[in-house]
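WARN retry 2 of 3 for item q-0093 after timeout on previous attempt; input resubmitted unchanged.
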Amino acid sequence: MRIESAPKNTLTPYPPKGGLPNSMIFRCSPLGLGVKHLKIIEFPTFRSKVRIPALIIFLIISTCGFAQNQGVKIALLKYNGGGDWYSDPTALPNLIKFCNANLKTNIHTEPSTIETGTSEIFNFPFVHLTGHGNIIFSENETINLRTYLEGGGFLHCDDNYGLDEYFRREMKKVFPEKEFVELPPSHPIFRQKYTFNEGLPKIHEHDNKPPQAFGLFIEERMVCLYTYESDLGDGWEDADVHNDPEETRLKALKMGANIIQFVFGQ
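OK item q-0093 returned
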């Protein structure tokens, strides 16, 4: 089951190519940062999308309230191709701890690990991808990831060095009709709780290139953020892993908190 925004009282061909996993995405915010996109409920076993009247929306909001009380989970994406998807193991737990303390979010302290082609991905409103080296999405994984992102999910890719050409290649398979758009320093993602007047902060040197943030959009909604030549994840890691100055780690964590706040508030 999926919940998303769309016009009322319409039927569209169903299921989409590749089908829909038997799961659901809530485009409400379990973080208490906004409730959005509560117009359609899709039942995978039906031959058409069933549009639920506004009178039943309170039931959806009640479900979202339950999710809020239970806390939301975010996930790390396990992909094929040989790249080390598991790098920076302390990064997400530290970011979650920082967000819960400073944004007053209610995120489960331990992130889950999910695979690209499984229906489990639909249980997570935010999925993080990182690593060095090759990524390969199969045809089924490509369809599944596109369905997830179109249905309200969000993917953040943080290049841990050496990921760029592979990630761009695979995302072109997911959205062949779209291009990454560089985000200017004026973009709202840099002006959430914390302000970054110069845009994405530089955490690790890599090739001494300037840090860049790119977005993929469906209409006005960003569905994928790609952070390049910054390496936020290294800054989120435990202090003794990379021996970054505390100021650098704090910049990375604040930028990560901005990402979380933006994603659940857009």
